[in-house]
Design a protein that fits this description.
single chain; about 190 residues; mainly beta; six-stranded mixed barrel; 4 helices; about 45% strand
Length: about 190
């Protein structure tokens, strides 16, 4: 059993530089660094739009990516009237289309919208110590008023900082706060 801090991930978008430039006239700017090395919350926000709903003030996460991705919760999906799959980051085949609106325009993108699966970020050295591989499924034990066991996938990356990432729906269901500690069973 290992202890890991919780990172609660609100809805957000990852954009390529080309798509960002369709939406904004000024360069992407950093609001603050995030837990994962190199990632940051941008000052710039967008609106997500479908035929059935909109969600405003959705944060862009930098730096630019090689692909576009929109990560929302199941509650957000209901508001937007769509049914995105639960997936690993980057697994976008047959995911939902969505329109992203910025300050200078909008773009509708196919196969970009998912609900991110629960995952634990970890670097290769610690993964080796824990004897886990990228994609392995582990169980996370949450103690408290709403105790539960949740499945999570291991996400190994060179600059991975140990953290259990869940969306706002999962955090609310388990009564978790940012930086709470949970136990991981390998």
């Amino acid at each position: 059993m290992k202890k890991v801090k919780v990172g609660i991930s609100n809805r957000h978008v990852h954009l390529t530089e080309d798509v960002y430039n369709m939406l904004f006239a000024t360069p992407l700017t950093k609001k603050n660094d995030l837990t994962q090395t190199g990632d940051f919350a941008a000052n710039e926000v967008v609106t997500l739009k479908t035929q059935k709903g909109t969600i405003e003030h959705v944060r862009i996460i930098g730096p630019y990516r090689s692909y576009n991705q929109v990560e929302i919760s199941r509650s957000d999906a209901r508001k937007l009237g769509i049914n995105p799959p639960v997936r690993k980051s980057g697994d976008l085949e047959n995911s939902e289309a969505i329109t992203i609106v910025g300050e200078k325009g909008e773009v509708t993108l196919e196969n970009v919208c998912i609900i991110a699966e629960r995952h634990i970020h970890i670097n290769p050295s610690l993964a080796n110590e824990w004897k886990v591989n990228d994609g392995d499924l582990v169980q996370v034990s949450i103690k408290g008023d709403k105790s539960c066991l949740l499945d999570a996938h291991i996400k190994v990356s060179e600059n991975g900082v140990l953290a259990f990432h869940i969306d706002t729906d999962d955090a609310n269901a388990a009564s978790l706060e940012q930086d709470d500690e949970v136990e991981v069973f390998l």
